[in-house]
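$ ./design --mode recover --in tokens.txt
reading tokens...
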């Protein structure tokens, strides 16, 4: 019998810039380019997209964590050398392909994706964290969108996702000034959920992911879809329809039965 999980683990060795580990119901993706502070190049984006596809098909996985290797950097931006000589058409394709193959894929994953931001999260690195559903950061994290210093703007969703989290004014300030902010400031404005020491960060992120993984995966999937439509004309209608659809599903029957029987549900 074909063992998908074993097959996925065998494929891990093919990744050049990632480390993918399975810990019970959690999948941990570590971006591993320490020589370039884990900067996103085309290979890394492609590998992240592939890894997420494999995780999406693995029913044993209930939550995903993305982090960077070491304590200096989550992702220190895009690899500028790769696109320094691009023209308009190539640049538009770069942004479109990156958004479609990775950043939008993360946001729309039916499993929750948590970012453990360990150090610099700049440019495309911050945009990667923004695409995740939840963000924890280390005390030494620095977050920012420095694209205007290169005569550019964020191209992987930063102008859209950052205002939704922190508001138009603060997002404009960060993007126009290109300044980096501290982890504590990021928590104050709602950009990250919690801040921990570098030593605690990954374990604290795993604790939250494990708590999430105990809950109904179908309900969480529906919640992600509804939350992603926050502040749109379709948000309330999606919530209403999803609420109704869940009443016909096994997770709802098990959850209600467990509550009435005063036991923990087995999703």
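writing sequence...
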């Amino acid at each position: 019998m074909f063992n998908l999980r074993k097959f996925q683990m065998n494929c891990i060795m093919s990744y050049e810039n990632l480390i993918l580990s399975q810990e019970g119901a959690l999948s941990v993706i570590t971006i591993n380019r320490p020589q370039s502070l884990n900067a996103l190049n085309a290979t890394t984006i492609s590998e992240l997209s592939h890894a997420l596809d494999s995780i999406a098909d693995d029913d044993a996985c209930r939550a995903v964590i993305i982090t960077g290797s070491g304590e200096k950097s989550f992702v220190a931006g895009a690899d500028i050398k790769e696109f320094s000589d691009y023209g308009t058409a190539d640049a538009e394709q770069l942004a479109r392909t990156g958004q479609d193959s990775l950043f939008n894929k993360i946001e729309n994953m039916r499993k929750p994706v948590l970012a453990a931001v360990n150090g610099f999260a700049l440019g495309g690195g911050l945009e990667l964290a923004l695409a995740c559903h939840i963000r924890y950061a280390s005390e030494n994290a620095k977050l920012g969108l420095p694209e205007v210093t290169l005569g550019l703007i964020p191209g992987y969703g930063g102008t859209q996702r950052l205002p939704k989290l922190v508001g138009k004014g603060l997002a404009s300030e960060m993007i126009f000034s290109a300044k980096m902010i501290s982890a504590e400031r990021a928590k104050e404005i709602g950009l990250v959920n919690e801040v921990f020491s570098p030593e605690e960060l990954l374990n604290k992120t795993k604790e939250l992911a494990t708590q999430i993984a105990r809950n109904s995966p179908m309900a969480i999937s529906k919640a992600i879809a509804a939350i992603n439509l926050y502040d749109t004309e379709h948000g309330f209608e999606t919530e209403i329809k999803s609420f109704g659809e869940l009443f016909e599903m096994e997770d709802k029957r098990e959850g209600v039965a467990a509550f009435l029987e005063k036991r923990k549900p087995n999703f």
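exit 0
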